[in-house]
Specification:
Elements lengths: L7 H5 L2 H18 L4 H5 L6 H14 L5 H6 L4 H4 L7 H16 L5 H18 L4
Helix pairs in contact: 2-4, 2-7, 7-8
């Protein structure tokens, strides 16, 4: 399957329910991985809205419905994170959480790698400190 075309990535991710499941697991990783302690502290105690925002963003970003825009409006990922000090360490911790969450899905291995590679792009754009 060729990812990144129309809704192919959204479908490969299991649609809205698959993406919400991935995001819930992502935040579980953030709460449990020692390497993610610092980025977890950047989030509110109650992750409900964080989960909703990331899942809605990923739905549209992967070619599905623009659920984030419908509820929260438009977003610039780097601008949304500019109030935080994000170094390569925080970026790597975020990507590690996603990598571990992806391992807990039934996504095809090539899609897991594709998605992680694609997510590295906005993650890199959020780095704003040395």
């Amino acid at each position: 399957m060729k990812y990144g075309v129309l809704d192919s990535s959204f479908s490969a991710a299991g649609g809205e329910s698959g993406i919400y499941s991935l995001v819930e697991n992502f935040y579980h990783q953030m709460e449990t991985l020692p390497q993610a302690e610092l980025i977890r502290s950047m989030h509110p105690a109650d992750l409900t809205e964080s989960i909703d925002k990331l899942a809605r963003f990923l739905c549209g970003w992967l070619g599905g419905p623009k659920l984030y825009r419908e509820k929260y409006g438009s977003i610039s990922i780097p601008r949304a994170h500019q109030h935080l000090k994000v170094t390569a360490t925080e970026r790597d911790a975020w990507l590690l959480c996603m990598q571990q969450a992806l391992l807990n899905t039934d996504y095809a291995e090539d899609f897991q790698q594709y998605l992680l590679n694609q997510l590295a792009v906005p993650a890199n754009r959020c780095v704003n400190a040395d």
